[in-house]
Amino acid sequence: MALTFALGPYSSSVICRATNINKHYHAQDLSYIRRAADISDKSAGFTFPHPNFGCVIATRSGEVAGEGYLYAQGTKPAEVLAVEAAGERCRGATAYLNMEPGDCHGDHTAVSALVQAGITRAVVGIRHPLQHLRGNAVRALRSQGLQVDVLGEDMRSKIVEEARKACLLVNLPLIYRAASRVPFSVLKYAMTLDGKIAASSGHAAWISSKLSRNRVFELRGRSDAIIVGGNTMRRDDPRLTARHGGGHMPIRIVMSKTLDLPKEANLWDLSEVSTIVVTQRGARRSFQRFLASKGVEVVEFDILNPRDVMEYFHDRGYLSILWECGGTLTASAISSGVIHKVFAFVAPKIIGGKNAPSPVGELGMVEMSQALDLIDVCFEQVGSDMLISGFLQPIPDLTPTVPSEDETFAIDPTVIPFEPSIIFFYKTWDPYGAFSNFSPHPIQMPDEDDNYVTWSSVEHYYQANKFLGISDPIAQDCIEKIKLAKSPEEAARMGRLTQRRHPNLVRSDWESVKIDVMYRALKCKFSIYPHLNSMLLSTAGSVLVEASPHDLFWGGGREGEGLNYLGRLLMQLRSEFLGESSAAGESTCLAL
């Protein structure tokens, strides 16, 4: 908090004491901001990667009264959890937030929790990276009378920038996604001291130490997906699991232009996690049918290249990708500009071999001056290995200058603000993310005995209904576990996994009733939350499309080929709500 003194009646000793108080106060602020960033990362490896929010509430005396972090999208905001932990000690306290609130557009739960608890000041590490959410919560808190200090804006110094950087690092996937429209991509490889990733024979197990391999499992757990090429799959037959004993499992992705892949492979085992194969259009149709029979998803591209693949997975909602491929695909990914960070494990071994593969293939560089330099390089000893990490691309600027509609119109009067007739929604952090089944809005629905049961989200209710009425203990146990799932992601994972492993336990009428199940859940959700109802009604005249490029039933598909039943149901509900509003208006007029 900046303190300003008039020089006249005050002595120099008073000014010095004020300056010391200011320095102490900043040090305390920055310590708690770093703490908020640290705890925001607690769900890493256990839930699907999502924006990381942490909140620390400290009393006026500097004691921590409560903490909280966002466990997954669709769960309680960090601010709400911190307020609940602090209780009455919130009165007059300061809330420290590593990032401005804003996980679900149109939902002001986090801001309301801080205001109603009596918080008088908030210190924010960074504004929200997504343009449609940036600044909204800061303005809302200030409008409610809270003092809000944003690092780098209201508080400036070298140590402030260091604390701000900690907040940036914990949300790099979201920042890169917002700036570059591709997921945050990390390249990982292990090599010998002489730069080989395998012997001349192709044998590669094991270059790095067990401790290094455990670090790789951690990296996998923090990622939405892991990518390998056809060569790696043929040579190593990898499993690409996180092996952390439960929780989030990243999707496995295989990139292959020719689909010259083995029929027997660990990646075709989908009992724990799904596999996606991306290939060039028309490649080995018979093998594509074989993969489909295994449940493996195949996505075709006109021309297969890393940039198009990453843009596709950006549209699919992925935040973070781990590349564990061979030199050829690595070189292509680097050349395409989609690799942002590198983790290189260097083992103190020498294997030699003129034909032994290296981690990066041909990049077309002929002079050392063309070499790519890493930024913010870190060195860490992991067991007997050395881990070298750094960025290939700088962290994007969070505050790009984007002209407003008024400014654009002043420059070019022919530009007319345009409201698109199609509104897309998908992830909870999208502009209309509250339409997602994963949004944090519990619903109450009647069970088979007409007793009302609370479900944490629409997704919880939908997944559990797959097994309703089945007397088998596995089905009953699955329903209970889904009901208690901590996040919509976990509920979805449980329901889909049980459906995949035990298709006989899915109720026989599921295909004919699932639309009605979803309709009833959505109607409840948009009936009991006024701000959601208002948001839905505000889209009148627009087509609503669930922007999933891979779910061709509930979503719109990659090229509009999907059935978009989720969007259809929301438009149906919107029409019904508008009709009820119109009927109510007519009744009022008649009464007058």
From TrEMBL:
SUPFAM superfamilies (UniProt xref): Cytidine deaminase-like, Dihydrofolate reductase-like, YbiA-like
Keyword field: Chloroplast, Glycosidase, Hydrolase, Multifunctional enzyme, NADP, Oxidoreductase, Plastid, Transit peptide
InterPro entries: CMP_dCMP_dom, Cytidine_deaminase-like, DHFR-like_dom_sf, Eubact_RibD, NADAR, RibD_C, RibDG_C, Riboflavin_Biosynth_HTPR
GO molecular function: 5-amino-6-(5-phosphoribosylamino)uracil reductase activity; diaminohydroxyphosphoribosylaminopyrimidine deaminase activity; hydrolase activity, hydrolyzing N-glycosyl compounds; NADP binding
Pathway(s) it belongs to: Cofactor biosynthesis; riboflavin biosynthesis; 5-amino-6-(D-ribitylamino)uracil from GTP: step 3/4
Main location: plastid
Domain CMP/dCMP-type deaminase: 27-149
GO cellular component term, pick one: chloroplast
Enzyme nomenclature, EC number: 1.1.1.193
Single GO biological process annotation from the record: riboflavin biosynthetic process
Organism from which the protein derives: Herrania umbratica
Family stated for the protein in its record: In the C-terminal section; belongs to the YbiA family.
A Pfam family reported for this protein in Swiss-Prot or TrEMBL: dCMP_cyt_deam_1
Designated gene of the protein: LOC110414637
Protein name: Riboflavin biosynthesis protein PYRR, chloroplastic
Subcellular location: Plastid, Chloroplast
Top-level enzyme category: oxidoreductase
PROSITE patterns xref list: CYT_DCMP_DEAMINASES_2 (PS51747)
